[in-house]
């Protein structure tokens, strides 16, 4: 099927989450052409997520009509290229990045919306705040000039144990609910990708990052610069 058909089908079948909330679809556009991305937007995608700063910059002026999210690991020396052009930074995973986002945002006179990334699986290969530190981090970051915390982002580890994965999503949802009582303006628990989005939505995620299901398998023969 075409990108348009994939998007139309996905949106028509996407349920509300376990709490009756509307789920926000973010199309993960790593290694996709501007033409394919615009086709997805025309079919109803309202937000797109980039993983690499280089790709973001190359395609920025060729894409219109959707929110721009940054969903990949972000190096501090590349923050300057995104300030004022990114609606939501989903991968705020460390204090150094928060400091640079704050500094650049204040200088540009903008407020940058962020999600606090939580390393829910305690994986050495992934960044993010430890679960036990996440709520304190969210409150501290929300009080930082130039930043506005909008919720949390997390990635599930690879596991065949569905019960374990469900428990992790539920744990993140409990953290989200607890934090929302303190920061009522937060909106998003971003969990779920093409392989696990249904499990995440069933257990409380209200934002999902979908790439392969919408665009097809990526061609990894071309090297990408890390963001």
Topology:
Layout (H helix, E strand, L loop, with lengths): L2 H11 L10 E5 L5 H9 L4 E4 L2 H7 L7 E4 L17 E5 L2 H14 L3 E7 L12 H12 L4 E8 L7 H21 L5 E3 L6 H6 L4 E4 L1 H4 L12
Parallel strand pairs: 1-2, 1-8, 2-3, 3-4, 4-5, 5-6, 6-7
Helix pairs in contact: 5-6
Identify the overall geometry.
globular
CATH architectural arrangement: Alpha-Beta Barrel
At the third CATH level, what is the topology name?
Answer: TIM Barrel
Mean model confidence by pLDDT: 95
**Please, what is the CATH homologous superfamily?**
Alanine racemase
Oligomer: single chain
Radius of gyration: 17 Å
- Work out the helix count: 8
DSSP E strands, number: 8
Number of domains: 1
Describe the structure.
With 227 residues, the protein is an alpha/beta fold. It has an eight-stranded parallel beta sheet. The protein has eight helices and eight strands. The longest helix is centred in the last third of the chain and has 21 residues. The radius of gyration is 17 Å and the shape is globular.
């Amino acid at each position: 099927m075409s990108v348009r058909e994939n998007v139309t089908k996905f949106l028509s079948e996407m349920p509300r989450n376990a709490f009756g909330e509307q789920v926000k679809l973010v199309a993960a556009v790593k290694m996709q052409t501007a033409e394919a991305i615009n086709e997805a937007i025309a079919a109803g995608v309202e937000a797109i997520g980039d993983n690499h700063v280089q790709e973001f910059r190359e395609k920025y002026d060729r894409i219109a009509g959707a929110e721009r999210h940054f969903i990949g690991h972000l190096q501090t020396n590349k923050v300057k290229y995104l300030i004022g052009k990114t609606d939501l930074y989903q991968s705020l995973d460390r204090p150094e990045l928060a400091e640079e986002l704050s500094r650049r945002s204040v200088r540009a006179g903008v407020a940058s919306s962020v999600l606090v990334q939580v390393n829910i699986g305690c994986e050495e290969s992934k960044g993010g705040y430890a679960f036990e530190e996440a709520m304190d981090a969210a409150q501290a970051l929300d009080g930082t000039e130039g930043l506005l915390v909008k919720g949390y982002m997390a990635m599930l580890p690879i596991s065949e144990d569905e019960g374990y994965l469900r428990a992790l999503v539920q744990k993140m949802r409990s953290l989200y609910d607890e934090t929302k009582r303190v920061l009522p303006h937060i909106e998003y628990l971003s969990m779920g990708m093409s392989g696990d989005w249904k499990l995440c939505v069933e257990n409380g995620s209200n934002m999902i990052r979908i790439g392969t299901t919408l665009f097809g398998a990526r061609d990894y023969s071309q090297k990408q610069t890390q963001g």
